[in-house]
Amino acid sequence: VKSLIKSQIHEQIKFSWRRNGKFFNIVKDPRVTMRKRSGTLEIGFRSGGRPEDYEGEYQCFASNDHGVALSNKILLRVSKAPLWPKEVLEPVVVTEGSPLVLPCNPPPGLPPPFTFWMNSAMTPIPQDKRVSMGLNGDLYFSNVIAQDAYTDYSCNARFLFTHTIQQKNPFTLKVQTKEPYNDTSYNATDPYGGRKVAESTPTFLSPSGSESSKMVLRDEQLLLECIAAGLPTPAIKWFKKGGDLPAQKVKLENFNKTLKIVSVSEEDAGVYVCMANNHLGSIRHSIFVQVKAAPYWLDKPTDLVLAPDENGRLVCRANGNPKPNIQWLINGQPIDSSPPNMNREVLGDTIIFRSVQMGSSAVYQCNASNQHGYLLANAFVSVLDMPPRMLGPKNQLIKVIENNRTFLDCPFFGSPLPELRWFKNGQGSGLDGGQYRVYINGTLEIKRARAEDEGTYTCVANSILGKAENQVRLEVKEPTRIVRAPEHQSAIRGSTVRFDCKVKSDPSLPVTVAWTKDDKPLNHGWRLKKDDESLTIPNVNEGDEGAYTCTVKSEIDQDSASARLTIITPLNHLKYRPDPPMDLDLSDPAARSVRLTWIPGNDHRSPITEFLVQFEEDRWEPGRWRNLSTYPGDLNSVILQLAPFVNYQFRVIAINSVGQSQPSRPSPRYKTTGAAPDAIPRGLRGWGSKKDNMEITWEPLLDLERNGANLHYCVWWRRKDTGEEWSNVTTVGSKHIVQNTETYVPYEIKIQAINNVGSGPESNVVIGYSGEDEPTDAPTDLRVSKVDINKTYIHWKPVDPNSVRGEFKEYRLYYWRESSLVPGLVVSKEKKTKGFYSTMAEPSGILSDLVPYSKYKMFMVVANSRFEGPRSNTVEFTTKEGVPDAPRFFRINRRSFDTIYLEWDKPLEPNGILIGYRLKYQIGENNCLSSHINGSREGREQLATFLPNATDFTLRLPDRSTRYKFYLSALTQVGAGEVYAEESPHFTNEVELTDASVASPFTPTPPPLATLPPTAIAPTTISTSTSTTPTTTTSTTTTTPSTTTTTATEATTTTTTPVVVITKRTDQNVLGTYSLTHHGPDNTHCFHSSLLSLAPPCVCVLCMSPAYIDQVDIATQGWFIGLMCAIALIILILLIVCFIKRSRGGKYPVRDKKDLPLDPVDQNNQDGSFDYHSDEDNKPLQGSQTSLDGNVKESDDSLVDYGEGGDGQFNEDGSFIGQYTVKKDKDETEGNESSEATSPVNAIYSLA
């Protein structure tokens, strides 16, 4: 038994227990222990003892220097599961149609058992409105039928705490019938099989009489029961006098025989009436329900902190039925028996403290009790003085969603109680009122957080003992919401479905989007595709059907949306389209509207999402159906907005997620009356097609905008700002030309549509212009400044605006590339233009995208909308030299086992004088050198430079599995140009090296190379060889027949010595190329190439594992052919020896049958054959090692001298032995063992 007591005061606490109101001495009872640092009491019975001896009422007391606190009382009882009393039950005899009660009377247990009825076969007794179990466990029969005797009835009691079930002896029924009973005549509607059984009016089996009472405690469960007898079985109904049954709280169970209210309150008291009736009559029973209440808190006392000389109060208010009695205690003792205190006054349920003093701290208990229960509360009254202090975390960051109610906490403490005020950003007066509210516990409420509420809030607690403050930083974020939610869909099996889930959130808040299907996490797998805004399900099937929910979460909020997916099989998907609407009807006619009503067709389990209304008119486009409007799928009657002077008929199409229905049948025609035009012609403008006219154009009205017959247009125009009268013309076209105008003058224009009914509204006045003419002046003083590689600044003097003679568009610059400064380079002289719009007095601009190192020419004109003016002066300028473009092409032209050929062409635009090419290359992932030295999978970057006339390069490979990355760029004096990158391709039979296949780490140091002249190289040839030499090697490299010689000396202790093989190739403008091969001590091969160029010296080091050097067909190698021949010869010799031994063993089986047992291999085989062999077969041969055990026994008739251990004497015929070996003396044998192998098998064993 464990009762956990947690103390709120963490000083030296002492715990004690009382049992049945008396001190419980724990020390004297070995079965009872108390946990350290807690008041938990443990009672163990593993070593014996009766739990019944410890039953009783327990209460814990916790005390320290400040007072004593009490726990609630704990009632300890031992659970019991008593056996059913032994009894002999006689068969129950009952007349058919009579009521019956089978008593259960379970043995009393703690807690009470759960009862149920079963038969001897452990099958539950079926219950219905005729047969049911009551609240007391008895089984009630409203009337008995003959079938009830076919089984027995046993009451079972299940004790939940001990997990045991007790079974009562079964009842046996004997049903007496007045007429013979036939099983075949039984049916559910006539359980008596057509026999006449006396009917009876209803009577109550439980409860008895016409009235009863029931008392229930507040918040407990109320169960009222009415079980009636009668034939036919009565029906039960419930009522409450003076009102209706509370539908939200009342639940009827057990075929309406039980009324249950889960949590009872005072208003549930009253008179409940149950009525039982059948066609013979009815009967009523009234139950008077009283609701009592154990004490419950109205105002529970709480801890109180007072400063010296302060006043305070403790309040303890409780309610109950009957009214509870309030008793005060101090430190566990009745307050009446405590010493009097002038600073304390008890007034019923309140204690008033006045001018408290230090040292008067104590724990007060309030006990509220009546006969139904009690309440106990501890309240610690602490008298102390303490300056203000903040209890919450410092400088807390709070993130909230915009427009949400927000609370900023500032827990504090102090005695006396400090005054708390809030400030924002350290300025202004305290925050309270309006948008803000400060609670007594220090919390600041912001009723609706907005972006301007962001900032730092400071809470300050002040008292006479000091001040404390804390800060809270508030950030207001935009809400996370789904702006495009997934929609319900019906999809054909095998098609692709996409659910949208577009999210909008605060940019500073990371969000996660998760999908669920039927409220379970969705396993995306390989088939489902999810991105930030959607979920795509390809090839849908029936298993994909369900409800899909998109949930988006941030750290402070979330949003979700759901949609359902319905799968349709391809064979019947057409039937899921809705049927066409029916019975279209027109009503409520008006000049420009009419009401259309229809009856929707069958939606075939896919809801109609919208209706499309179409119309057809017979005046302008008869027979063509056009869309009028769409309406939501839940409407079937709408008002259609129509145009005048149209003869309409309508039809409706229903739409669901599968598709559209067929159109409905057309409605009757409805003709609207004519009206004046409502629309104003659009696109009105005036412009000059010639220098002395102005064309006024507009878009004609649509057919449905005519509103009547004989449509025409009235057009007005006049010179702007002259005050002259309007000129006008009426026309049926969409254009009018005003002749004989001045050049480029503004006009005011307006238009109006007119039909037979009347005139439409006038348009707004627009400004048009007459025609333009060629400008008369040219820009002057065109010049350039700050000419750069690809741009320059241009300047000119503007023209007089009046000379433009039209709408000024731009200063148009014509420029072209006259030539390139690169000799022999042909360029295109195509003219290009660039416009500059400027009205400044000294205009200028930037001309960019020029080609470097080129000569340009340019001139400028002024342009209006139609014409260009005369040319300005022509200017020449030259751009500076730049970096070249990328080479025209760069490719690996061909590749053999050990060579890569690179080829390129000059750049299309050198942008200067080419001085060469730069090639950077890097050994790729299969380079053992990089993995040995650097630990990476890529080699060190190498550099080569070439003269400008070089267009190819040959690179010898250390092995064919090595791959390179190449980066080529052209050079000018300015620098390197755009890089062209390529990578060497795989061979078809090439195998990529892996880390596991790389040889041991690279250790040898490459020999020093001579200092070489700087220039580019031609192809290099590298060769390898291996030899065994003394430990010191001297290598000499000759650069030219008559120039520098470099000597490299290397000392080593290995048997594999570096060998240098030197090759030289000279080309035009190339000083030389040198290569050496170094065979490292780990049998790796490293190639060092020194390249001679005009650039600084460059050294390339290539290294590889021997397994990948010169990989050729292994079948053509001499060592492989020799190995195969040796293996074949050995196999042939072994076959000959086996044949000889088999023949010898078959003819002469020699065995000492007395000394040696029959060997297992000599046993008869399954097929009846025997395997004969001699013991000599297992003896060591002459010249070989002895047997492992050394204890092989030699028989007298064996070939002793054929082995090592004999005594040299024969007991057999010499001719018999002679075919295997020759007799040798012991001395000879010891002196020349290797010569004793006189047979092929001896030779083989000697080799082994």
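the 2nd protein, sequnce then structure:
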Amino acid sequence: MTETQHFLYLKFRFATWRDTLMMVVGSLCALIHGSASPLMLLVYGMMTNTFVTYEVEVQELKDPNKECINNTIHWTNGSIYETTDNTTVSCGVNIEAQMTMFAYYYIGIGLGVLIVSYFQIVFWVSAAARQTQKIRKTYFRKVMQMEIGWFDCNSVGELNTRISDDINKINNAIADQVSIFIERISTFVFGFMVGFIGGWKLTLVVIAVSPLIGIAAGLMAVARLTGRELTAYAKAGAVADEVLSSIRTVAAFGGEERETERYDRNLIEAQNWGVKKGSIIGVFQGYLWCIIFLCYALAFWYGSKLVIDTKELTPGSLIQVFFGVLMAAMNLGQASPCLEAFASGRAAAKTIFETIDREPEINCFSDDGHKLDKVKGDLEFHNITFFYPSRPDVKILDNLNMQIKAGETTAFVGPSGSGKSTTIQLIQRFYDAEEGTVYLDGHDIRTLNIQWLRSLIGIVEQEPVLFATTIAENIRYGRPGVTTEEIIQAAKEANAYNFVMTLPQKFDTLVGECGGQMSGGQKQRIAIARALIRNPKILLLDMATSALDNESEAVVQEALDNVRAGRTTISIAHRLSTIRNADVIVGFEHGRAVERGTHSELLEKQGVYFTLVTLQNQGSSNTPNGKTFEGYDSRLGFIQICQQVTEEGPEEHEEPAPVARILKYNRPEWPYMLLGSLGAAVNGSVNPIYAVLFSQILGTFAVQDLNQQREEINGICILFCIVAVISFFSQFLQGYAFAKSGELLTRRLRKVGFQAMLRQEIGWFDDPRNSPGALTTRLATDASMVQGATGSQIGMIVNSLTNIGASFIIAFYFSWKLTLVIMCFLPLIGLSGVFQAKMLTGFANKDKKSMEAAGQVSSEALGNIRTIAGLAKERSFVESYEQKLELPFKSAKKRANIYGLCFGFAQCVIFMAYAASFRYGGYLVRVEGLPYMLVFRVISAIVISGMALGRASSFTPDYAKAKIAAAQFFQLLDRVPKISINHTDGQKWEIFKGEIEFLNCKFTYPTRPDIQVLSGLVVSVKPGQTLAFVGSSGCGKSTSVQLLERFYDPDEGQVLIDGHPSHTVNVPFLRSQIGIVSQEPVLFDCSIAENIQYGDNTRTVAMEEVVEAAKKAHLHDFVMGLPNKYETQVGAQGSQLSRGQKQRIAIARAIVRNPKILLLDEATSALDTESEQTVQSALDEARKGRTCIVIAHRLSTIQNADIIAVMSQGVVIEQGTHGKLMAKKGAYYKLVTTGAPIS
């Protein structure tokens, strides 16, 4: 019990007494609503009896010797007429008056249903809306209180989906679904009650078989919900993921076709499971219908015995019992999808409430902690050790000690990842250190009030985050309640005033999402103004000018120099020119402050600072702009988040794909589709046949001759059995045939889609939208969605058409007048069917649109949480979010009313239809002598087909979704890659020499167009020579290799290969001449031999060659020592092997290719000394007689290269042999003599 109590508490813990009251009243209404259908059966039963007695009377009175006196039939001579078994026959039924009364009953029930179902929905939905609103507010507020470390461990995307999807799931579970569940259960109970009141024997017989129906209905629901295809697809998905994650390796070794084959082989399992699933659903459907028809046969046969032989039942109570129990069984089955919603809501609630109950370690909303009266600005770091919570195994700061004096400018320098930015984040108290303390003016900052502490600090980051509002508002974020004059003053100090005044709207200009409308320099200056307006005691400049070009840098730098005066300033530097005039320079390495002093003191030490200066000076003497030596920092993450947000917008509105094109892909399966359609046609005609048989049974009760009556009933029951068997097979046929054609289509689409992905140029994969994860999901889900637009859809259409067609033919044939009357209601009945189907899926999707505004606030807030925390602006975002929630909340309440009305209308329309049509039917029976059984036949034929139609539309997988998925798919198929890997495009030539020239190459990565990677690279290498690139990370060494492989083409300039410009060369041909060994070699999840054979995908490499290559790579002995030798599996990404072993397999793989050009990208950097020597000798072996480009990181490994090129900021600053460069005493000389680290 505690489990359920806990569950209810979870669900409704945010309910006020008012909500509880609404939910209780709503539940009562649902109970009453549930009893309506069984009530209707009572009326229906009475009505049947009336019709039957009337019919008997009519038949008796056909004899001219009988007449009706005092409601009893007499002979014309006045004696009472008695039937064979000595009973009298009553007469004088006023059929129209009776029917009018029944019509009023129906209308009464209908109105009752309209009212209670309206309240049932309105109360539940609005109570749920209020609770959801409360949960959203509480959750967002709590998330904004969390410390930054928590955000490192929870991705922003995940939090956003939690705010939208998970809370919607909770909403679904506590809204209409509960009331519908109660209503269904109530129908279940009342249905049985009606049955027992009518006749307990028959009820027991039907109950005995009804579990079979309930089970079938439940199984149907379950079978739909299985997620098994995805697990079956998992293997192929893993292949796709592995290939797409290591796309560069696949491209370099030309393995595209081989991978497509491998992927296709793994798709078979998913295909088989899909067919299995289709067949299972077919069997279930068939079983359900078969059981239902057999039940009909049994119940009518036994029931008619009770009516005719023992006279226990009237025909009316037979119908009442039978339908009562049937209704109960079906409703029990349909209640199961609601449980599904409860379960997912409960799971979602668990994660949401866990967050709500979590206490943040650093709570920015708390008022605890001191506020000092006077702040000088002395900072001290004392024995600080620190790990990021998301990477507890990497020590970022290692026992760091340092002091920063008030009023001085301190500069931090050091390679990437040495902990410079981390110290800044500790000063802002985004994190607390594991060990050690940070002191401000001698106070431990953990004892100070957070909001107050952060208000002392102004920070300007490398990638400043602006919010999507005006310039003035962005500056105002710096400090609450500033005047316009102060804003202007701050803008002037930040050198921003002039450019702002040139904009048309001046300070009211919108900066766009993430400041997208502004240039880097402009954003930077607005951020500086925002920092200045705080009048901070401590100014933190984290690479504040790195992203700028020279001109804007000078301007921004000047602004920074002006404002540094008299404040404690910490500047993380990247261009040494900007920090020469700092008071103190602190050099960082591996999380320690290894050196401190002024510029000149540190140069004498020849340590970290010295290395950086050397590389940079050398660079700046040759190039106009001394760009960063620090390459891209880890902070690119932020830009990408912003880019994603801005770019996703326009993509969504895909034109739905034409169905014809989808079907074209399905053409080979036409026999299956034909079979399926045949099955569907048979299934469609089942309902109308049922209507005919059902009314026929009612008709037999008016037959006078008992023997004839029995014969007719037995005949009809046998017919029911035949229909049962046929429908079992046809349902199975429809399920199986369409599943087969659909799965073959899915497999074909997946294969084609995967091929299309592998055709794209590498730059396409850099786009965050095309990350391996996103692409694998697209393959998994889009393709299987498309199938919903073909097979099952066609089946659906055929089924519905035959259903309607047959029903109408029957109805018009037997009574066209009555048919016309009912047809007026048909659109309404169809609508109500559609509506009930919608009910099952719930109404949450409508919320999504109105939630978008709030969603934007939340995603902006979560995406830029650091900036917001730094500005201590969490509260204003929480307020703005809550404000944005008001509108959706109001619309949700309004929608609850509309929804309630629609629901009520849909529920009551069928009662109204019955009222009208039976009343008119009574008229026709009396005036035109229409046999009453035809009234039933026509009405049930049409009503049943209407309901079936509505229901059917629900079971079609989402058609619109399928078309959009298809559109995305075709968009991928139609995309023309910028670099074609076709075997026919471009030149090939006979004798490939391997001469390479880079002519003035300029290049930026497509995803980071603002960072110039190569700015005019000029270098050449003759066939057979070895060229070595040396330089710090991010100077463009690896990029030049990627241009050579034609993963990218240069923006300007050319790469010449044997004198041919690279963009005219056939790509597979070019790549087949190049072997590459990279720093982190990518191995595939197969055996060692297969990995080596991967080197040449154009042919099957013989084992001898593999062994030969392995020997050259010094790998053979190690492999022979393994138990399975060359058949040893290397594990995912080669995880079973050490780095040195992986490296040697990669070298063997490159040797098997027998390439003319060998590219070694830091091939030995990740190794310890021993394995390095082995690998190095293997490489020297492999280099013989080939053109070779080496990217070095240890200078010792490249001294014997023919040309050594020293690179900095995307250009070569000096080149020559080792001897020449040593004599020149330039940058290379300094690097070698000081032994300073490079990368």
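Confidence is low (pLDDT under 50) at residues 619-653. The first helix runs from residue 2 to 12.
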